[in-house]
Amino acid sequence: MAGRKPTEPSAESIARANRQRLAQEEGVRAMEDVARQAVSVRKNMERLRALREAREAEHAALPQPVAPPAKKKKREARPAK
Length: 81
Prior knowledge:
Layout: H1 11-61
Protein backbone atom coordinates (compact mmCIF):
# COMPACT_ATOMS: atom_id res chain seq x y z
CA MET A 1 0.00 0.00 0.00
CA ALA A 2 2.32 2.66 -1.25
CA GLY A 3 -0.34 5.39 -1.67
CA ARG A 4 -1.35 5.64 2.00
CA LYS A 5 0.05 8.25 4.37
CA PRO A 6 1.45 7.14 7.71
CA THR A 7 -0.84 7.79 10.66
CA GLU A 8 1.86 9.67 12.58
CA PRO A 9 3.25 12.87 11.03
CA SER A 10 6.96 12.88 10.37
CA ALA A 11 9.32 15.22 12.17
CA GLU A 12 9.77 17.14 8.92
CA SER A 13 6.03 17.70 8.45
CA ILE A 14 5.68 18.77 12.09
CA ALA A 15 8.55 21.26 11.67
CA ARG A 16 7.05 22.58 8.41
CA ALA A 17 3.63 23.01 10.01
CA ASN A 18 5.25 24.77 12.97
CA ARG A 19 7.15 27.16 10.65
CA GLN A 20 3.95 27.92 8.74
CA ARG A 21 2.06 28.60 11.96
CA LEU A 22 4.81 30.90 13.23
CA ALA A 23 4.96 32.73 9.89
CA GLN A 24 1.20 33.23 9.92
CA GLU A 25 1.27 34.58 13.49
CA GLU A 26 4.14 36.93 12.59
CA GLY A 27 2.19 38.11 9.53
CA VAL A 28 -0.84 38.91 11.67
CA ARG A 29 1.34 40.86 14.12
CA ALA A 30 2.99 42.74 11.26
CA MET A 31 -0.37 43.70 9.75
CA GLU A 32 -1.61 44.94 13.15
CA ASP A 33 1.56 47.00 13.53
CA VAL A 34 1.09 48.54 10.07
CA ALA A 35 -2.51 49.40 10.93
CA ARG A 36 -1.44 51.04 14.22
CA GLN A 37 1.22 53.07 12.42
CA ALA A 38 -1.30 54.19 9.80
CA VAL A 39 -3.66 55.41 12.53
CA SER A 40 -0.78 57.23 14.19
CA VAL A 41 0.22 58.91 10.93
CA ARG A 42 -3.36 60.03 10.24
CA LYS A 43 -3.71 61.48 13.76
CA ASN A 44 -0.44 63.38 13.35
CA MET A 45 -1.49 64.69 9.94
CA GLU A 46 -4.78 65.88 11.43
CA ARG A 47 -2.94 67.64 14.25
CA LEU A 48 -0.53 69.32 11.86
CA ARG A 49 -3.36 70.37 9.53
CA ALA A 50 -5.20 71.99 12.46
CA LEU A 51 -2.04 73.87 13.46
CA ARG A 52 -1.44 75.04 9.89
CA GLU A 53 -5.03 76.20 9.45
CA ALA A 54 -4.93 78.08 12.77
CA ARG A 55 -1.67 79.76 11.77
CA GLU A 56 -3.09 80.70 8.35
CA ALA A 57 -6.26 82.09 9.95
CA GLU A 58 -4.19 84.14 12.40
CA HIS A 59 -2.02 85.45 9.58
CA ALA A 60 -5.09 86.36 7.50
CA ALA A 61 -6.57 88.28 10.43
CA LEU A 62 -3.52 90.55 10.75
CA PRO A 63 -3.67 93.85 8.88
CA GLN A 64 -1.58 93.64 5.76
CA PRO A 65 0.97 96.45 5.36
CA VAL A 66 0.44 98.58 2.30
CA ALA A 67 3.60 98.98 0.29
CA PRO A 68 4.24 102.43 -1.17
CA PRO A 69 4.08 102.53 -4.95
CA ALA A 70 7.39 101.81 -6.60
CA LYS A 71 9.21 104.83 -7.93
CA LYS A 72 9.85 104.80 -11.64
CA LYS A 73 13.45 105.24 -12.60
CA LYS A 74 14.29 107.79 -15.21
CA ARG A 75 15.78 106.24 -18.26
CA GLU A 76 19.13 107.56 -19.24
CA ALA A 77 19.28 109.09 -22.65
CA ARG A 78 20.99 106.90 -25.15
CA PRO A 79 23.79 108.45 -27.05
CA ALA A 80 22.91 109.24 -30.67
CA LYS A 81 24.73 107.30 -33.28
